[in-house]
Amino acid sequence: MILVIAEQREGKLNRATWEAVAAAQQLAGGAPISVAVLGASTGGLGQELAAASVAAVLVAENAALEPYTPDAYAAAASTLIESVKPAYVLLPHTYQTRDFAPLLAARIRKPLVTDVTGINGTGADATFTRPMFQGKLAAQVKPQAGPPAIITVQIGAFRADAVQKGGAAAVKKVDLQIDPSAIRQKPEAPFREAKQAVDLGQAERIVSVGRGIKSQENIALAEKLATAMGAEIAASRPICDNGWLPMERQIGSSGQTVAPKLYVALGISGAIQHLVGMKGSRTIVAINKDAEAPIFEVADYGIVGDLFEIAPALITELEKS
Amino acid sequence: MKIAVCIKQVPTREWQPRLNDQKTWIREADISYEMNEPDAYALEEALRLRERHGGEVVVCSAGPARVQTVIREALARGADRAIHVEHDRLGAADAFVIAEALAAAMKDEAFDLVLTGLQSDDQGHGQTGVILAERLGIPSSTIIMDVRIEGSSMRVKRELEGGWFQWLAMPLPALLTIQSGINQLRYATLKGIMAAKKKEIQKASLPDGLQPSQQVVGLAVPTRSKQTQMITGSPADAAKELVRRLRDEARAL
After folding, report:
1. Are the Cβ atoms of B125 and A143 closer than 8 angstroms?
2. Whole-number Å distance between alpha carbons of A18 and A21
């Protein structure tokens, strides 16, 4: 048995849930799969999930699960695991699971393999591929001392549209006891900081700068290139952390997700947190001094070299016509 | 306030990976190391909280003898003292082993607040802080962008996806994993570096019998998912060729 824990917010499934179901179907090799959805009131989500070819959908409702807290979710998930006795527990690798999955693993003393991009083999013999060293290397990992092993799968690594549908899964209610006094985090309502003055999602072209730009003064060079290309300027997280460009121009998991016609990554190494925000772009150009930088893995065109030589040459070339 | 900051020493960002002969781990001989960046932000936050509320900042690190370099650096930036769980096997240990090792050395200190980076730039499990909290029996919250102490409790700002945030209230003691960019880092002054030499680094030993939770059975440079066309030549030639291809092939200009 493989247990998938769905992620929902305000009655809407996170799309990454389907990717976790696809990963589970690959890992199962025919073994049964259960999908659980947690929440105070999950509405039609159980039925929605039952469209997948799985053995069962478990609806675990408890008032203590809303709003989300790591303490309540870890308590609910450990109860589910105790009753289902899965060989693996699969979740999408999101900000929410990064918060409670390690707590769950620590509490039940079982292995947690995070940010998985590939599954090799099925069942007990499976190994899992995950990035290490900022994506410079990919590790094959074997969990020890399961079952279950808890696995979180990287967003975009498995295809939601590859989920085998057409099951006739039974939707079952599961009783959960959660002691509200054991929940130590008291969350307030989520909010957005700045009005998103710039909607990079609408930009046709984006020139994005990373650490390779070296100093705030050099941002002007990137802006000049953006102007020559008819592009918006954007950046990876460290640039916005330094205040060299405003936070609203940040691309990546903590910023905006974009898919323009053209994305030029200037001195961006390509940490996964950045890649998830731009890898859907139609044409990606990477300019970086490090030939091994992970950004080249998603690029259509690559130039290895000094951006302080290449960007001015590009501006000259673009201004010719 | 008694604040602990857990820091890890990791290979520098410029480091080019080289594998051992079995291709199961990196060749450690020729690596230069630095402080894990998110941990550096956690340290800075701890120093700022001490400036506001008083108390002490204790640096905790689990690793081989080499990690003393980053411990000294943290002391030079202003931490008061350090605890070092020293063992050669901790260099490549997973999050469970590191967390258990730290918990054993930290549990009798009764810290009010434990801070660490949200993940390490080497193995990147993103688990150590939360597992440590559970072993210390204290609550945790992750990916934190602001910390406000209010008596015996605190309010913290947690980052959510896509530009969303959320405040939450938590009791003390607690553990927080800190997001990069929460503050502006300070660097060590010459005075700080001199003072660090006299600060105490307490050695702790690794508890017996800790088993890894996962084993790396293979390590490789990732395979490319896309066929990247590399454009070579002088900057002027490469620029010309790139513009031509973006116009004619990709029709992106």
Report:
1. no
2. 5
Averaged confidence pLDDT in chain B: 95
What are the residue ranges in chain A where pLDDT is below 50? none
ipTM value = 0.93
The percent of residues in chain B predicted with pLDDT above 70, rounded, is: 99
For residues A162 and A220, state if they share a domain. Answer: no
CATH number of the domain within which A65 lies = 3.40.50.620
B2-204 maps to which CATH number? 3.40.50.620
User: Which two tokens mark B15?
Assistant: 């480091």
Q: Is a pLDDT exceeding 70 seen at residue B130?
A: yes
- Predicted confidence (pLDDT) at residue B161 exceeds the cutoff of 70: yes
Q: Measured between CB atoms, does A216 come within 8 Å of chain B?
A: no
Q: How many CB pairs under 8 A join A and B?
A: 257
Are A176 and A208 found together in one domain? Answer: no
How high is the pLDDT of residue A195? Answer: 60
With a cut of 70, say whether residue B221 has pLDDT above it.
yes
DSSP annotation string for B208-227: TTPPPSEEEEEEEPPPPSS-
- Are both A216 and A172 inside the same structural domain? no
Domain boundaries defined on chain B: 2-204, 223-253
* Candidates B16, B218, B223; nearest CB to A292: B16
Question: Pick from A111, A296, A301: which is nearest to B214 by CB?
Answer: A111
Same domain assignment for residues A302 and A175 = no
Within chain B, how many helices (H) and strands (E) appear?
6, 13
User: How many domains, chain A?
Assistant: 2
Confidence tier at B196 by pLDDT (50, 70, 90): very high
The whole domain housing A261 covers: 200-320
Distances (CA, A) of A234 to A270, A278, B197: 14, 11, 43
Q: Which two tokens stand for residue A212?
A: 């390779």
- Inter-chain residue contact A133 with B142, CB threshold 8 Å: no
Tokens of A117: 């991009």
Tell me the pTM.
0.90
